[in-house]
Amino acid sequence: MWLTGFDAPCVNTLYVDKLMKGHNLMQAIARVNRIFRDKPGGLIVDYIGIDEQLKEATAKYTQGGGRGSLTGDLEQEAAALFLRQLEITRANMPGLKATEFPANAYAAWRSLSNIQLEDLTSYVYGTLVGDPQHRDDFLNEEFKLSKAFSLVKHLAVAQQHTEEVGFYQLVRQQLRKIDAATSHKTRQLERAVRDLLDESIAAREAIDIYAVAGLDKPDVSVLDEQFLIGHDGDARKEDLQVRLLARLLSDEIELRERKNLVRYRSYREMLEEALQKYNNRTVTAQEVIAVMRQIRAKDRAEAERQQALGLNEEEMAFYDVIVLGEAIELHQTDAWIADLVRQVVKSVRENLEVDWTKPHRSNIEAAVQSAVSRVLLKNKIKGEQFHFLRARLMTQAKATYSRWPEVA
Question: Which of 192, 269, 285, 355 could join 242 via S-S bond, C-beta 3.0 to 4.6 A?
Fold first, then answer.
């Protein structure tokens, strides 16, 4: 009898209601037909019809000389599956132009010069991210290829394709980084196998994604005008440039939105609307860049307005809460509102304590709200205006000072 990995007691009757084959089927039957004490044999009740699977398993078992060789063909089947999936993945890669890239560039990518490799990766990324359906098809097939490769990577037939599989995985990793807007919901999916060629890929010099996209690596804010106009106009890189710039700008806006909810939320909405239209092919890449420049122009104008009002960054965030968005008309001058904001910020900061926004420190939050209320009442703000502004100012206070005193 074959080993089962545990002390499996023998049984008299086996009811088969699910499909089994190979050694699993032989082991299950062995528990029934074995002779044990006064038990001469057993009964198998077949509900689904396993005679063909039983014949196949028995034939393999007897061919192995009764030594349990039921997996002789598994490696061949796995290798065939891998090669078939490799062909499918190749078919989902962008076609290579003979005048620009070697025919075997995907498999021989390590032998390319740095410039050739950057051109190849730029072409591949730009083509895939430009067509969401094409990108998704590639990611799905590459995932299957990685699983198949994990089963046969010890075989010679698979080892000769190691570099090609590594390139496809490199493409997949970069696509995950580039694709910020839609992200393909990959965060909800755990990879079933580890990255197979981390060590192999790490041996190659790292690829600068900014260089691939034809952009200068930003060492200043992405809202800098010079960075936004720093693309080279290469049509092959245009889509990649737009998406990379959008990713950087979105991250910058998200970071600043914590300090100024109203202003940067409006910028985020402008960017998301432009990207949605771009994904729907109703606007061009240049029009998306124009929106980014418009955001930059607005941000620069707000910085000049802040300087004219004599407010710091914190105070300007509270000022925007009052004058921007769905604000109630105060019928007051800018100077009067700026003075009100200074009083609010001063009163809020005087009442802040560690973890003041946490539920167990509700008394501190109440003290901050009371301080805001006193400032508003002192400046003769009452009724609907009072409740509206207090709520807006408290929302901004929580966003600005949630990590107090770290942000002090």
Answer: 285
- Joined together, the tokens standing for residue 246 give 């959008």
CA atoms within 13 A on the CB side of 328: 12
Rounded CA-CA distance 29/50 in Å is: 11
Q: What percent of the chain has pLDDT over 90?
A: 9
pTM value surpassing 0.85: no
Strand, coil or helix: 13: strand
Confidence band of 200 (pLDDT split at 50, 70, 90): very low
Q: Do 328 and 396 have their domain in common?
A: yes
Q: Are residues 34 and 113 located together in one domain of the fold?
A: no
Q: And the tokens for 172?
A: 């997949």
CA distances from 75 to 58, 151, 166 (A): 19, 8, 21
What end-to-end distance do the CA atoms of the chain give, in Å? 74
pLDDT band at 250; cut points 50, 70, 90: confident
Rounded to whole angstroms, the Cα distance separating 355 from 150 reads: 48
Per the structure, the complete domain to which residue 35 belongs is given by: 13-63
Q: How many domains does the chain have?
A: 4
CA distances from 206 to 4, 177, 212, 332 (A): 48, 14, 11, 57
